[in-house]
Amino acid sequence: MPLIPEEPQIHESAQGPRATPAAGRTAPTPRPVPGPRSAASPRPGHPGPGPARPAPPRTHTSATSAGQPQAPRPTKPSVPQIQLIPAPADGALDAADEAVDLLLDSGRAPADVLVLTTGEQHPWATHELSFGEAAYWAQHDARDDVFYADAAVVGRASARPVVVVAINGGADDEAARALPAALAKATALLIVCGDPQRINTALGTGV
Known about the structure:
5 strands; globular; five-stranded parallel beta sheet
């Protein structure tokens, strides 16, 4: 079943570097879903009415005993939400910036957001890389702001609650590699800005 563009309200907005829209075109206004925040802390257990009594010593039972204790069930990992914002290739970067603005306006911390591009680098990344890769990646490791990177280096980036991908160019096979990798880096929400057909092809019709 192909991914259908959604337009739920979100109240979030991005600080940090913004791409300047090209003259003569208007960036689409995205309406990404904020999605779940960082996983909530486990609820503390409720204390019992009194001190716990020591458990009686276990007696050996055969594997076929009806009272054999069951192994604990593994915890199922949470699956991030996916939000599609339709945009042409030359407007995908502007749509991604609008999405980040909305995310931050709704209360997301800047450090929660990673922005990836499949084509031309975001202007912030281009500027910061001019000072050298060491300084650029040091900002990533500091985790105190939105971080912008080329989708080709997503493997080097650490996971963040929200990953925004701008399909603003690049070959189809690059997008096909970038989107699953970006999905693996998002712990709560993946927002993809670009052509819906191309995105569905990259993510797979089963998404």
